[in-house]
Q: What sequence folds into this?
């Protein structure tokens, strides 16, 4: 039985890691417990317009820019018209500013090791390193180039869906939170 044979599961979480979100079909490059589809997100081959929603928390920065383009195009293809893609990425200019401030002797909200781990990945297992960096206008350009038209930003887009991570409640833990919807 493929995950989509259950008509209730029309939601996909890519890069779920060791914290799969309940109510989703789970994908990761590692065969962690709870992962339904082991593989790259741009290779997932659900039928066109077969998903209502795709979620990717702390994932996109682990892909190269080319892999992000391929992933965004594949997500757009799999989403039904009106379907939504929710995700977040570190806001690289803010994290770079923390590095500069630290070395200029100014106080920052995290240890410098935490800042560098956010920039380069925590490197706890293979694939846990960051390969791309993002800021809002770069994300907008990439998403529009992959077919997404309606873009919403801010942590509220994830909180309103009931998603929760510690970083969502810490404004200084600078991430860009996105809801990209496929046009109807």
A:
């Amino acid at each position: 039985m493929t995950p989509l044979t259950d008509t209730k599961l029309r939601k996909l979480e890519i890069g779920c890691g060791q914290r799969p979100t309940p109510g989703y079909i789970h994908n990761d490059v590692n065969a962690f417990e709870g992962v339904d589809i082991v593989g790259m997100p741009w290779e997932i081959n659900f039928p066109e317009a077969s998903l209502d929603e795709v979620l990717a928390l702390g994932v996109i920065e682990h892909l190269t820019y080319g892999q992000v383009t391929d992933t965004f195009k594949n997500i757009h293809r799999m989403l039904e018209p009106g379907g939504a893609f929710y995700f977040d990425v570190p806001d690289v200019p803010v994290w770079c500013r923390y590095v500069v401030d630290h070395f200029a002797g100014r106080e920052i909200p995290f240890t410098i090791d935490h800042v560098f781990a956010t920039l380069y990945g925590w490197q706890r297992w293979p694939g846990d390193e960051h390969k791309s960096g993002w800021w809002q206008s770069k994300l907008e350009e990439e998403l529009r180039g992959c077919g997404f038209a309606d873009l919403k930003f801010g942590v509220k887009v994830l909180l309103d869906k009931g998603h929760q991570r510690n970083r969502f409640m810490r404004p200084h833990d600078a991430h860009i939170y996105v809801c990209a919807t496929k046009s109807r």
User: Anything to note?
Assistant: The chain has a mean pLDDT of 94. The helical segments are 65-78, 92-103, 112-120, 136-145, 156-159. The beta strands are 11-13, 25-28, 37-38, 51-57, 79-90, 150-153, 175-181. The CA atoms of residues 42 and 76 lie 11 Å apart.
